[in-house]
């Protein structure tokens, strides 16, 4: 799309030295501040464009150390983050759950031969420089105020693209996005979630292969993705039922001078700290965006279903070993590795044929898949094709049961957190009560001493009066 695809190798990406910092034009605070200034009428029309869920996402302070470590773990050859246990990938379902954006729909294509339009000219672009400065869009939004019309929608969406979803290192937004906004309400038919995924993948590859400090793409998505998949450096969980999931996590300020070694934390990761595949809960499946994503996975994405059956821990391992340990299994192992590796995307066209429209690549792969499934499930001499329907049904029942158990676990975790919070409050109240008791004891001792002194003084006075009376007599 904006950048041509590049060939890379594991050796190339792994030999690059890590970069100590990054620079970006991405700005969650700037976007959230602009959202907070919207009127109710403006919010309603933005929701009609299919991007309304973005208005719900709160500000997230970027954890630079965490993001830098993630970028360092990225392999452009494998299209995954490489950790000791295996590979973690970014998927369309991740984008749908975290950002609340469609991953099914018309592709977002910025074509080189896109004719220069009058709309682009109205926004200050030229045929030679098809860029719109972000500060121009900010000034335009300020001048529009509470106006609700097509001009407002186009300006706000371009601003959203430039600072939140597709920020560039130049601080501009590509004017060709206006080709999708001739009628802004038609924006809802495009797969903006797939475009967000494409953009962040492109920047991760560029940083790894070119050793550049500049980073674009939606960093809020990348950071929340880490919270969802890796159990460390997480902030507190605000609302386990919030959708999109970017609304679940509290905003924690990060001290860049903290002596936390994320490299060491990644190296010491254990299996129970990793969530290989996040799955939607029952209440998330009530949203059309998630439901249509899951329907596409069930209908066309054979890769995902096979992977989940072949690897019960849902880990994509770096090494594959044949069942009998002999060389006869080598060819089959290579076929499985080809099937299970992360689906490739087209940077030029921002499309995901292997993720959302994935079918079996050949009849030999399908045959090998079912043969392996038959072996792994313990079938003896039965034809896998005859039991395929039963396996699919059982798999669906297991998925539903897993979703229900995850919902119950989430509820128990929330209840436990509330109890822990309640216990902490009780402890603090107990400490305060102890302090009050100690203060009362001290006051009581002081009063007792004062009373004793008063009694002695009275006795002295009484004794003195008695002596005076005797002398007068």
TrEMBL record:
<feature type="domain" description="Aminotransferase-like plant mobile">
    <location>
        <begin position="59"/>
        <end position="277"/>
    </location>
</feature>
<dbReference type="InterPro" id="IPR019557">
    <property type="entry name" value="AminoTfrase-like_pln_mobile"/>
</dbReference>
<feature type="region of interest" description="Disordered">
    <location>
        <begin position="367"/>
        <end position="389"/>
    </location>
</feature>
<protein>
    <recommendedName>
        <fullName>Aminotransferase-like plant mobile domain-containing protein</fullName>
    </recommendedName>
</protein>
<feature type="compositionally biased region" description="Polar residues">
    <location>
        <begin position="367"/>
        <end position="382"/>
    </location>
</feature>
<dbReference type="GO" id="GO:0010073">
    <property type="term" value="P:meristem maintenance"/>
</dbReference>
<dbReference type="Pfam" id="PF10536">
    <property type="entry name" value="PMD"/>
</dbReference>
<dbReference type="InterPro" id="IPR044824">
    <property type="entry name" value="MAIN-like"/>
</dbReference>
């Amino acid at each position: 799309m904006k950048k041509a695809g590049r060939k890379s190798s594991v050796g190339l990406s792994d030999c690059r030295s890590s970069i100590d910092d990054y620079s970006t034009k991405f700005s969650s605070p700037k976007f959230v501040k602009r959202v907070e200034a919207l009127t109710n009428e403006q919010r309603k029309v933005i929701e009609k464009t299919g991007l309304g869920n973005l208005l719900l996402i709160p500000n997230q302070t970027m954890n630079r150390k965490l993001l830098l470590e993630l970028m360092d773990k990225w392999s452009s050859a494998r299209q995954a983050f490489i950790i000791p246990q295996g590979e973690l990938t970014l998927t369309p379902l991740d984008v749908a759950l975290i950002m609340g954006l469609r991953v099914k729909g018309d592709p977002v294509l910025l074509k080189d031969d896109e004719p220069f339009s009058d709309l682009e000219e109205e926004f200050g672009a030229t045929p030679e420089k098809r860029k719109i400065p972000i500060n121009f869009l900010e000034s335009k939004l300020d001048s529009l105020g509470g106006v609700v019309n097509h001009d407002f929608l186009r300006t706000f969406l371009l601003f959203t693209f430039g600072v939140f979803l597709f920020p560039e290192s130049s601080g501009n937004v590509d004017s060709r996005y206006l080709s999708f906004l001739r009628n802004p309400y038609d924006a809802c038919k495009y797969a903006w979630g797939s475009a967000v995924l494409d953009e962040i993948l492109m920047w991760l590859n560029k940083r790894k292969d070119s050793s550049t400090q500049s980073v674009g793409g939606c960093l809020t998505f990348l950071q929340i993705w880490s919270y969802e998949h890796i159990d460390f450096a997480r902030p507190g969980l605000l609302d386990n039922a919030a959708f999109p999931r970017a609304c679940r996590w509290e905003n924690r300020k990060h001290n860049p001078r903290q002596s936390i070694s994320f490299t060491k934390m990644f190296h010491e990761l254990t299996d129970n700290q990793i969530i290989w595949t996040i799955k939607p809960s029952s209440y998330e499946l009530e949203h059309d965006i998630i439901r249509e994503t899951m329907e596409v996975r069930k209908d066309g994405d054979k890769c995902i279903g096979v992977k989940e059956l072949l690897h019960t821990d849902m880990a994509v391992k770096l090494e594959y070993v044949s069942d009998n340990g002999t060389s006869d299994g080598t060819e089959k192992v290579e076929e499985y590795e080809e099937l299970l590796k992360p689906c490739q995307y087209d940077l030029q066209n921002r499309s995901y044929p292997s993720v959302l429209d994935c079918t079996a690549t050949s009849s030999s792969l399908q045959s090998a898949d079912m043969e392996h499934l038959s072996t792994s499930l313990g079938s003896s001499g039965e034809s896998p094709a005859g039991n395929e329907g039963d396996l699919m049904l059982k798999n669906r029942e297991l998925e539903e049961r897993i979703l229900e158990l995850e919902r119950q676990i989430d509820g128990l975790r929330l209840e436990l957190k509330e109890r822990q919070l309640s216990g902490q409050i009780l402890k603090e109240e107990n400490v305060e009560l102890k302090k009050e008791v100690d203060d009362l004891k001290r006051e009581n001792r002081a009063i007792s001493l004062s009373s004793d002194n008063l009694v002695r003084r009275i006795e002295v006075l009484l004794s003195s009066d008695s002596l005076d009376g005797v002398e007068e007599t």
